[in-house]
Structures are given as C-alpha cells and as structure tokens.
Amino acid sequence: MKTFQVPTKAEVSADNQIIFDKLKDSLGFVPNLYAYYGKNDTALNDYLQLQNRKTTLSKREKEIVNLVVSQYNDCYYCQSAHTVIAGLNGFTPDQILEVRGGSASFDAKLNALAKFTLSTISNKGKLSQQDKLDFLEAGFNESNLIDVVIAIGDKVMSNFIHNLAQFEVDFPTAPKLEATLAS
C-alpha cells in the first residue's frame, strides 16, 4: 500500500518554501495539512487564500461549521485542529463535543448554525423550507448562507485530503465523539 508523506520545506517549490516560512513565523510550525498541500505548486497558496477570505461569519461561527463538517466527514486531523482552535475562540470542551455532534444548546443562534450546517452537508444542500427558515429566523441572512456553504467547501477539501493521505495529526488529539457519548 502506498504511504503518503508530508513533504519537508526542501521538497516543495520555492514559492511554497516562502509560505512555509510565513506559516512557521505566524503559527510556530507548519501544520502537516498545509505542508501536504505544498506538494502541489499552487494548492497551498490557493487554499490559504480561501481560508483567509473575508466572511460574514464570526470566528466562532466559522468554528461551528469546521467542527460539524469535520465530524460528519470523519476527519480526525481536522477534528483535532479545530478542537484546539475552537478552544482558543472561547468554546469549552463540552461545548466543542456538542457542536461536533451537530448542535449547540448553549446558544440559540449557534445551535441554528450547527443544525443548518449538518443538514446542508448531509442533504447535499437540498434542505427543507423549514430548515432554511430556521436558519434565517435565528438571525442569519442569505449572505451568511453563502459564507456557510463556502466554509463547508473549504473544510470538505481539507477533510478529504487528510482522509485520503492519512498523514500524522500534529495537534493535540481530540477526544473521539463516540467514546465520549458512550460514557
């Protein structure tokens, strides 16, 4: 079986080496996911531009989408990375686990977002009128709807890259949701 390896800085293009340096300066390390994108001459820059685009969603709202989608797609790398990031954005460990399960009972608006995100990904965007209405009545608008779909697409790309390549998780590992729910 083919083993997929995360490239070192020396193994990527000159342009990607510059990005690696910037990532190391800002994050303290180059996450394996980003390094893996570096195998392609343009994908890393393209992906970072997508991640850093202006959005109508707050950082907390983006983390709701990231956690729900990563759980749905069973991407342990992104579950772990976004557990850390969600914690940095004020979510408690229990809240993070609840969000990964598709709800956020601790906040009505975030709950609507979690449910909308899960429904959107699991139904391939073919939601009932009630699902869409619930999202809008929670205080979101059509501009937010577009940003949620873009955020879902962003996370699906990363989830699929990791699920295909299965490189090492270089964040503190997230608790498995199934094990937590069973206890």
Explain what this protein looks like in three dimensions.
- With 183 residues, the protein is mainly alpha-helical.
- It has two domains: 9-51, no CATH class; 59-182, AhpD-like (Up-down Bundle), CATH 1.20.1290.
- It contains ten helices and no strands.
- Helix 4 (59-72) runs antiparallel to helix 5 (76-88).
- The model has no long low-confidence stretch (mean pLDDT 95).
Give the topology.
Blueprint: H1 14-27, H2 32-37, H3 43-51, H4 59-72, H5 76-88, H6 93-100, H7 108-122, H8 129-137, H9 142-165, H10 177-182
| Fraction in helix | 55-70%
- Structural category is mainly alpha
Order of helices and strands: HHHHHHHHHH
Tally of helical runs: 10
Regarding quaternary structure, what we see is: single chain
Going by CATH, the homologous superfamily of the largest domain would be AhpD-like
- Main sheet? none
Distance between the termini: 36 Å
Uncertain stretches: none
Q: How many discrete domains?
A: 2
The count of strands amounts to: 0
Share of β-strand residues:
under 5%
CATH architecture of the largest domain: Up-down Bundle
Rg from C-alpha positions? Answer: 17 Å
Q: Which CATH class of the largest domain is shown?
A: Mainly Alpha
| CATH level 3 topology of the largest domain | AhpD-like
Shape: globular
Average residue-wise pLDDT: 95
